[in-house]
Amino acid sequence: MLITEFRIILPVTVEEYQVAQLYATAQMSKQNTGGGEGVEILANQPFEKPMSEAFLGKYNTGQYTKKIYHLGSRVPGFVRLLFSDSSLSMHEEAWNAYPYCKTVLTNPYMKDNMIIDISTLHVADRGESENVHLLSGDELKKRNIVYINIADPVSRADYKEADDPEKYKSAKTGRGPLLASQPWQKTCQPYMCCYKLVREKFKWFGLQTRVENLIMTQEERLFRNFHRQLFCC
């Protein structure tokens, strides 16, 4: 199992992020639905857990969603060779107990041999907290930390001028532009960090390492693009 903690510093407050996240999520879902591929929503309802089952011991109420992501042509060719079209889907269960969120992704074909578990905590700091997810000693040894700078260049395929922090300036707050060449993450006001802990397992002899690395690379790409859009929305 791979364990990677992505830390994404943003020039917004934790409260502002909550509102912007809802808008950016809706926009991304809208952009990726259609043509037989996209997002299918199966459940969207409040949840409440007993405190004994609360996330991190204190987050026990929020919104639960269940979705199916139809991947289709969005996966690499070598993966499409292994799966039928009906198997190229991901089932997602998510618990939004903001500022904590948990998302679990599975594939019905792979069952317990494939799981992507994402725990997210939004904190009013600059990414310096050592263990916000309360990992065990063994997990800390396995954890890889990756800082994502939303101002860094993205691929030509992912680039959208409207979502470029180096060109965006908020008419409402005056924040931006953010320059990748400048240490804005250390100086911006306000500030917060999105700590995304990804636990990933893919058990398939001969393909495990390749696919696990591919999935983690795609998660980093998704987080970068999403937060570029969130800041510029």
UniProtKB/TrEMBL annotation:
Q: What is this protein called?
A: Phosphatidylinositol transfer protein N-terminal domain-containing protein
Gene Ontology cellular component terms for the protein in this record: cell periphery; cytoplasm
Q: Which domain of life is it from?
A: Eukaryota
Where's the Phosphatidylinositol transfer protein N-terminal domain? 1-232
- The residue stretches assigned to a coiled coil in this entry are none
Q: Where is the signal peptide?
A: none
Task: Note the InterPro entries from the entry.
Answer: PI_transfer, PI_transfer_N, START-like_dom_sf
Q: Which GO terms describe its molecular function?
A: phosphatidylcholine binding; phosphatidylcholine transporter activity; phosphatidylinositol binding; phosphatidylinositol transfer activity
Among the Pfam families in the record, one is: IP_trans
